[in-house]
Structures are given as structure tokens and as C-alpha cells.
Write a structure and sequence with these properties.
elongated, 3 domains, five-stranded mixed β-sheet, RNA-binding, Tyrosyl-Transfer RNA Synthetase, Structural Genomics Hypothetical 15.5 Kd Protein In mrcA-pckA Intergenic Region, Chain A, six-stranded mixed β-sheet, alpha/beta, single chain, Rossmann fold, 424 residues
RNA sequence: GGGGGGAUUCCAGAGCGGUCAAAUGGGGCAGACUGUAAAUCUGUUGGCUAAGCCUUCGGAGGUUCGAAUCCUCCUCCCCCCA
């Protein structure tokens, strides 16, 4: 199966320029995707582009990841309703470096002629003078052409700065530069990038007479219409500092059946046969959530490693599975802490626990698990508070008897909100 | 510049002198069901020393035994005419 066929059955092609498939069949082709370094970690929204590069590399072509040190300084108007804030040069440098580290996990940068490379457009844009840019790039495309792009049209009502208007030229020039310097003939990205990419192919055609191609994937959606890749806590990041491996694993595990059937094709490398077999099996017994588990496992291991995956799995079993007070109390402190990495923590004086604390004060005053005593009373009445996995009522008194490892108390508000209280 | 309408608890939006911590809907949070899902149903949604009390209805004053409700001024928003 060739690269385009591979992406096609995986549902990863939204639009493809005629001739692209032929080009890929003709020779080893270099292709790139651009990544905006707006933060010092990638989030799972970036993963689609990265998987495109991965498949590209597996098909024997050469992937380039373009980290937009320069374009990141400008801001892409595509899909944005408001003018972007500019990032400082220093922040961008830091972000670019961090993103490079994450890309190493996905692509092979070592072996063979088609090893992946990272390029930073700041390297070739930084010395470009304004006049030089106008003469070399601006001259070749008309404002009429640029204004016809959807990304620009949509912003004409609300306004966009000259800087953002120029964005497509800068990105277009990137493509031209890579075309000339690295024989890069394909740019990929999300469907919102189509306009920017075609500005590039047009620029290449007019300036060099050469032919370059474009391939974009559809916007990843969720069946319920909400935005993909977001939780209540915000973006799902690849960096464990922002999204713990446990939460990362949970994100994939909690995807709906319908979404997961699409996602597993996009985010995992399972073969078509494997996925079809798993999907079939999943439909037979949806409650087992085989697909979600397979996807969550595959992607958590790839991003965080085997060990972190196992801890996340263990944590999930303790929290949602057979976990009881007994298993909880047997848990070594190290495991407990890693399982609850990222859950809110509160400190309580050990001397106070010796004396015993009424559960209402414990929830509302000693900790901030509930926002007020009124809320604490309501929650207790509704049966939504558990201490060490056991439901408690409003007469419960918290004392040292509840301490796990003589140090921690696990509190649940509802089913999914965990808090760890530490005795000092 | 002239005329009119409005600002209410997370949001939308009732209330127009006491019965208002304020209808209803949405959202949120919980409970049941379940697959850590969806759908559905139920409860709850200012605070407290809690059958009571305190702070809330754009801001500042005032009328009244009593104001989210009436009056005055201020701020902001919307609409119409010029």
C-alpha cells in the first residue's frame, strides 16, 4: 500500500493536489509540515500532522518538520478570529527547542537516506530584509490572489493587520526555500492550511517553473460537536509537566465509540486488518472498550513510554476498577503518589487529625475540596463524598485512622474528582 | 443633537412596593442507570454558628414601617429619528 492509499483508508485526506500521488510513486519525495511554536510542548492536535510525517517516512519518503520560529512571530490568520499576540524571540527559541525533543519520539532522525530532519524557518527568514522580501517574494503574487484566500476573506469584516495578511507569503516562501534547497515537493497540514500551502505551490510555479504539491487532512472532530483535544482542564499536551501520563491515558480511554473508530486509524499505526478486527470485536462487546484501550495504550506508550503507561493503567484500575480501601492501604507510597500525580493536594496538621476533624470542616475549611460548608453539607447529603473509597455521611469524623501509609487520605468528590490530603 | 428602551443571582431571562435568595430555561455539580460512555430520570445550584440570620438584583443617594421593584443623579449598553 502506498502512502496516499494508506492515508486514504485511514481517513486522513481532506484534499490533495492532482499529481501528488504520481510524484510520490515516481521517487523518494521530501515533504514537510509546519508546526507553530506557540508553546513549549506539542498538544494532541499536532499529532495528526506528525502521524502524516510518520506514514510518509514509513512509505520510504523523507519527512521534514518545519518549526516556525519565524512564522510563529507573525501569527497565522487561518481559523483565527482575532489578531494574534506576538511572542518574543527568546520564548520562541525555547519553544522550538522543546518541540524538537518531542518530535524525536515519533520520527527516525538517524537512519537512512530518508531520515527525518527538523528545520526552523527563522534560520532563513531572520536575515531577510524587508526590501529583499518585497522584491523576491511579494512581486510574484498579486494582492488580488492573496485576498481571495478564505483565511483572509473571513477576516476582512473584523479586520486583520498587514502582518497577518502577509503571513501566507512568509509561509509560501518557506515552501519555496525548502523546494530549492532540499528538493521538497510536498507540503502537508490540516485542512485550514490549504490556502497557505497553495500560495506556496503558486509561488514555486511562478518563480521557478517547478511543480510542488499539497495534501491536507480533515479537521479532527468529535461526534458530539465539541472541540477535539480539549478537556475541562484545557489542551491535552504531550509534555508530562502539563498533562500527566495518567490524564493523557484517560483522555483516549474516554473517547466515544464513534470517535475512537476514526481516531485509532489516525493516531495509531495498527494495520488495516488489525483495526478492522478490533473494530468488529469492539462492536460485539462495546462495554469492554477494547478500541479505546488499544488506542490509549498505543499512544501513551509512544508518547510517555512503557513504564508510564503501566502506571497510568494501574492508576486507572485503582481509581475505577476493583480498588477498595484495602488495596488502597496496601499501596506503597511511591505508587500512590505517582497514581495521584496532578490531583489537587492539601495539607492538614497531624495534631488536628489526632484530635479528629468533623468532615464538614475537613472539606470546607481544612481543605478546599468544597467551596463552602453549605456545599459540603449538600454533597454529603447527596452521598457524593468518599474517603478512601468509602462513602461517608455528615457525621463522619476524619482522624489518623484514615491515614494511608500513615500520611495520606484520599478524598473523592463525586466519581471523578480526587483529592489527596497529606498529614504534616 | 432629539426621542425611546435596557442593566437581575454562572448565562439567558421573569419579577415591577411586602408572600423574593428572587419564576423558567440553559449550563454546572451530584445521585440512579451504565461501559470511567451516550441517552434518560432525580436532586441541587449565595453565605453562615441554618425551622433563624447575613450579603446580593449596574453605582451613589433618597422616599417608605418595608425597595430588585418608586424618585434623583451618575456610568455603561441597545434601538429609532436628525
Amino acid at each position: 500500500m502506498n502512502f496516499v492509499e494508506e492515508l486514504r483508508w485511514r481517513g486522513m485526506i481532506h484534499d490533495i493536489m492532482p499529481g501528488t500521488e504520481e510524484q510520490l510513486q515516481k521517487e523518494m519525495t521530501t515533504a514537510y509540515v509546519g508546526i507553530d511554536p506557540t508553546a513549549d510542548s506539542l498538544h494532541i492536535g499536532h499529532l495528526v500532522s506528525i502521524m502524516m510525517l510518520k506514514h510518509l517516512q514509513l512509505a520510504g519518503h523523507k519527512p521534514l518538520a518545519l518549526v516556525g520560529g519565524a512564522t510563529g512571530m507573525i501569527g497565522d490568520p487561518s481559523g483565527k478570529s482575532e489578531e494574534r499576540n506576538l511572542l518574543s524571540e527568546e520564548v520562541l527559541r525555547h519553544n522550538v527547542e522543546a518541540i524538537k525533543q518531542q518530535l524525536l519520539k515519533f520520527l527516525d532522525f538517524e537512519t537512512g537516506e530518508n531520515r527525518a530532519e527538523i528545520v526552523n524557518n527563522y534560520d532563513w527568514m531572520k536575515e531577510f530584509s524587508f526590501l529583499g522580501f518585497l522584491r523576491e517574494v511579494g512581486k510574484h503574487l498579486t494582492v488580488n490572489y492573496m485576498m481571495a484566500k478564505d483565511s483572509v476573506k473571513k477576516r476582512l469584516e473584523t479586520g486583520l493587520s498587514f502582518t497577518e495578511f502577509t503571513y501566507q507569503l512568509v509561509q509560501g516562501y518557506d515552501y519555496l526555500h525548502l523546494f530549492s534547497s532540499k528538493n521538497c515537493k510536498l507540503q502537508m497540514g490540516g485542512s485550514d492550511q490549504w490556502g497557505n500551502i497553495t500560495t506556496g505551490t503558486e509561488l514555486i510555479r511562478r518563480k521557478t517553473g517547478g511543480e510542488a504539491f499539497a495534501l491536507v487532512c480533515p479537521l479532527i472532530t468529535k461526534a458530539d460537536g465539541s472541540k477535539f483535544g480539549k478537556t475541562e482542564k484545557g489542551n491535552v499536551w504531550l509534555d508530562a509537566r502539563y498533562t500527566s501520563p495518567y490524564h493523557f491515558y484517560q483522555f483516549w480511554l474516554n473517547c466515544s465509540d464513534e470517535d475512537t473508530e476514526r481516531y485509532i486509524k489516525i493516531f495509531s499505526l495498527f494495520s488495516r486488518q488489525e483495526i478492522e478486527a478490533m473494530t468488529e470485536e469492539h462492536r460485539q462487546a462495546p462495554h469492554l472498550r477494547l478500541l479505546q484501550k488499544a488506542l490509549a495504550k498505543d499512544i501513551t506508550i509512544r508518547v510517555h513510554g512503557q513504564e508510564e503507561y503501566e502506571t497510568a493503567l494501574e492508576a486507572s484500575e485503582i481509581l475505577f476498577g476493583k480498588g477498595t480501601t484495602e488495596t488502597l492501604k496496601k499501596l506503597p507510597e511511591q505508587v500512590l503518589l505517582s497514581v495521584f500525580d496532578g490531583v489537587p493536594m492539601f495539607d492538614v496538621e497531624k495534631s488536628e487529625l489526632d484530635a479528629g476533624i468533623g468532615v464538614i470542616d475537613f472539606l470546607a475549611e481544612k481543605t478546599a475540596i468544597t467551596q463552602s460548608k453549605g456545599e459540603a453539607r449538600r454533597m454529603l447529603k447527596e452521598g457524593s463524598i468518599s474517603i478512601n473509597k468509602e462513602k461517608v455521611n455528615d457525621e463522619f469524623v476524619v482522624s489518623t485512622a484514615q491515614l494511608i501509609n500513615n500520611r495520606h487520605i484520599l478524598v473523592q468528590r463525586g466519581k471523578k474528582n480526587y483529592y489527596l490530603v497529606q498529614a504534616r
